[in-house]
Specification:
It is a single chain. Helix 3 (about 40-60) runs antiparallel to helix 4. The chain is globular and about 40 Å long. It has one domain (about 1-160). The protein has helices at about 1-20, 20-35, 40-60, 65-85, 90-110, 115-135, 140-160. Helix content is about 85%, strand content about 0%. The chain is mainly α and about 160 residues long.
Length: about 160
């Protein structure tokens, strides 16, 4: 099962790298490592990675590089919800890792301070709302996927502010 999980995680990372570059591959690698640490199965990993790759496809079709924010928020919230089943602290840490990866990439891309402040504020708001929502119901893979999908749409809307 570890080989299948590694194949899925690294396959998604390679696809992301070939389509969008290293910045798009990095969140896939983090997702795979975090899922491995959580001892989640390969099916759950595939289900978590697939919706994010739709953002990559949309970026390729539209050329809108802002969709990278939605892509990373999809993954950050999915990870946070997965780890919320352990504890709130673990959830914040897991989601925070991907937000930190996002910020590091944006710094490397020379994003301005004012843009970074907005992106960080929106990402933290989306993470808090998502964790509050996830904590109110059953912990299921389908629920994680739904909340992460809505969170990525909230991230998109947040960029318009």
């Amino acid at each position: 099962m570890r080989l299948l999980s590694a194949s899925i995680g690294l396959g998604a990372a390679v696809a992301a790298a070939l389509s969008g570059g290293w910045a798009w591959a990095l969140p896939c690698v983090v997702m795979w490592l975090e899922f491995r640490a959580a001892r989640a199965d390969a099916t759950a990993l595939a289900a978590a990675l697939a919706p994010g790759l739709l953002w990559l496809l949309l970026c390729g079709i539209t050329g809108d590089r802002r969709l990278y924010f939605c892509y990373t928020m999809q993954y950050a919230v999915h990870l946070a919800c997965l780890y919320r089943e352990r504890s709130l602290r673990a959830a914040i840490g897991a989601g925070g890792v991907l937000i930190a990866v996002f910020v590091a990439v944006r710094v490397a891309q020379a994003a301005t301070a004012s843009v970074l402040v907005v992106e960080i504020a929106v990402s933290l708001m989306v993470l808090v709302v998502s964790l509050a929502t996830y904590g109110t119901g059953a912990a299921t893979s389908a629920r994680r996927m739904a909340i992460a999908a809505v969170a990525s749409l909230l991230a998109f809307a947040g960029l318009a502010l």
